[in-house]
Amino acid sequence: MEEFILGEVKALDVKERSIHQLLLEMSNVSFQGRALGEAYKILIDMFNDPDNTIFLGLAGSLSTAGMWRIVKWLVENRYVDVLVSTGANISEDIVEALGFKYYKTYPTVDDAKLLERKYDRFYDTVVNELEYREMEGLIGEFIDTLPEGGIYSTMEFLHLFGRFLSERGVDSIVAAAYKQGVPVFSPALVDSGYGIAAVLRYRRGHRIVLDMVRDFAQLVEIGLRSSKISAIYIGGGVPKDYVNLVAVANTLIAEYEKGVKDYYKPLEYVVQFTTDSPQWGGLSGATLEEAVSWGKVSPKAKKRVVYVDATIALPLIAHGLVTGGVKRRNPRDFKWLFSEIRG
């Protein structure tokens, strides 16, 4: 058989089957159907590897799109060890957790009317601006509990916020992470409702400091203490490269501090679900093959990009894991990391 032949394309029959089985069989079709099936198989291998630290990079504003409970489920069932998220995803879930709603609308709705009636739009979804401010107000209440001038990494800040939400019975991604011992990092945290809440306190004289060097140092330390590192990227953006740079930092620390040349600890399994494409030169669309040149991804890594809307991929993947009985093997323990948090 020719060396470029990977196997047969197998047409899908229409029959009763679990989503797990469907995804497995889709790995033998073509185009993005095959990509989704192959990515699912890589995820199963990733979850079954007992010596593997799994990072989840979560970009965009998926909580408004009805995806936050799936992310929370992944955290609660420890399919991921570390969450790196935009501020939006870990604040906008709180709106619904507080009892408010996001509403479906037309993408062509008159935005001037929305402004008059105090509704904010996310493509085909809207939220009441005043209810959104309730979420920001709750974050502000939490900030008020922190000592003036306190210095925190985003992981420390969000761990304490998770405890605050948990004690108040507010169901959310950050509260679930607190309960499960999953550290949450948000390198662009203030680019969200967190920033609005914090700056209002800042102007009143109640100021806290987010130490981003400490934040990255803690993330890198997780990588240094891990036998293997792997990643799942929902979208791209800052969360994707923040995780990628863990591998780069491992290389430079080995060289500068230990004098070890040509040392790499790259990602061993990587799956990305994205609608971004590589030809524009941005990190979000950069291929996983390109990341090999940086030492971010192993040349031998099990890797797959799926060009798909995350609101399609996430429900299918999560329900595949449920119907297939796929469990996470040996999640990481971060007691050593949380022991450093004061407050």
Task: Sum up the structure in keywords.
11 strands; alpha/beta; 3-stranded antiparallel β-sheet; 343 residues; Deoxyhypusine Synthase
Structure at a glance:
By secondary structure, this protein is an alpha/beta fold. The protein has helices at residues 19-26, 31-48, 68-76, 92-97, 111-116, 129-145, 154-167, 173-180, 193-203, 212-224, 237-258, 288-293, 310-323, 335-338; strands at 52-58, 82-85, 102-104, 119-122, 125-128, 151-152, 184-185, 209-210, 228-234, 267-274, 297-307.
How would you sum up this structure, described in words?
The model has no long low-confidence stretch (mean pLDDT 97). This protein has a six-stranded parallel beta sheet with strand order 7-2-1-9-10-11, sandwiched between helices. Strands 3-5-4 form a three-stranded antiparallel beta sheet. The protein has a two-stranded parallel ribbon with strand order 6-8. With 343 residues, it is of the alpha/beta class. The chain contains 14 helices and eleven strands. Helix 7 crosses helix 8. The chain starts with 18 loop residues before the first helix and ends in a 5-residue tail after the last helix. Strand 9, helix 11 (237-258) and strand 10 (267-274) form a beta-alpha-beta unit. It is globular. It is 45% helix and 16% strand. The chain has a domain at 19-86 and 151-184 and 210-338: 3-Layer(aba) Sandwich (Deoxyhypusine Synthase).
